Amino acid sequence: MNLTLFTAPKPFTNPHIATIQRNAIQSWLQLGEGVRVILVGDEIGMKEVAVELGVEHLPQVQVNRDGTPLVSSIFELARQHSPDPLLGYLNADILLTPAILGPLAQVAQQVERFLIVGQRWDLDVRQALDFSPGWDERLMTDVRQRGRIHPPMGSDYFVFPRTCFTQMPKFAIGRAGWDNWMFTHARRQGWPVIDATQTIDIIHQDHDYSHLPGGQPHYRLPETTENIRLAGGRRAIFTLHDADYHLVHGEVKRIPLRGRKYLREMETFPLRKLHSYPLAELSFAIFHPVKAFKEWRGRVAYKIGRKK
């Protein structure tokens, strides 16, 4: 399989962040000769790590006024420097094993355009990993013993054909909202959003938020607010709950519309099919009257506070 994996690492200044990012990149290099790895950005230490590990480095990324790399630029640079038919963006702390290649090939053989996503396992990793033979089996044994499955609120990896996501808003990387837009855009385009959680295991190495301004989680930063605006507003924030297909025994199958899944599809219909945000707001109010009222009250209070 010819696949390009690309990422935008954090600075390699924090010893723990540096360790887990090096672990992640080295795990990708274990996937075989058909897998190309690209680091995008100009963060401290990135060039040196790229040279050491023998991966491609693209430092000419565009940034916003706060100096944060733009997702659109990261994706475009990877596309320009890769001839591969399949691209995969991952957060730089994600470990992969060779077991991922089979499911990716199965999907590519069945669907022309798609987005593969899934839940992650969270694991506390403090040391450099040993990549001697059998490393993947040892890692997965550790995951089964100490790992925790993360709630299905987003995704830390996105695999898609190079013909998809060619136009993206200027999202700030590492802030909330842009990953949700990936789900929303794919659904609105009619591309299958495939939840591969049951088939693909990815491992997120735990870390703190010391690399962010003030040590705050990314969802509290002003850049996240801007990302959500660029994504189309709160109603356009989709999650793994909005995937419409899954991979079962090697087959891409539609997720049955039952219970909450059916109601969610009804709720998001105005946004997905009619491309109407006002109708999406109305639909949200119908399906979630209490939440809608609290949001409305909060907006009014905010506007009144600004006038004062």
Which structural class should the secondary elements be placed in? alpha/beta
Strand order of the largest sheet: 3-2-1-4-9
Average of pLDDT: 93
Q: Gap between N and C termini, in Å?
A: 60 Å
Q: Tell me, what's the shape?
A: globular
Q: Can you summarize the main beta sheet? A: 5 strands, mixed
For the record, the CATH architecture of the largest domain stands as Alpha-Beta Complex
Radius of gyration: 20 Å
Give the helix proportion (percent range).
25-40%
Order of helices and strands: EHEHEHEEHEEHEEHEEHEEHHH
Strand content: 15-25%
Q: How many strand elements?
A: 13
Number of domains: 2
CATH topology call of the largest domain: Spore Coat Polysaccharide Biosynthesis Protein SpsA, Chain A
> What name goes with the CATH superfamily of the largest domain?
Spore Coat Polysaccharide Biosynthesis Protein SpsA, Chain A
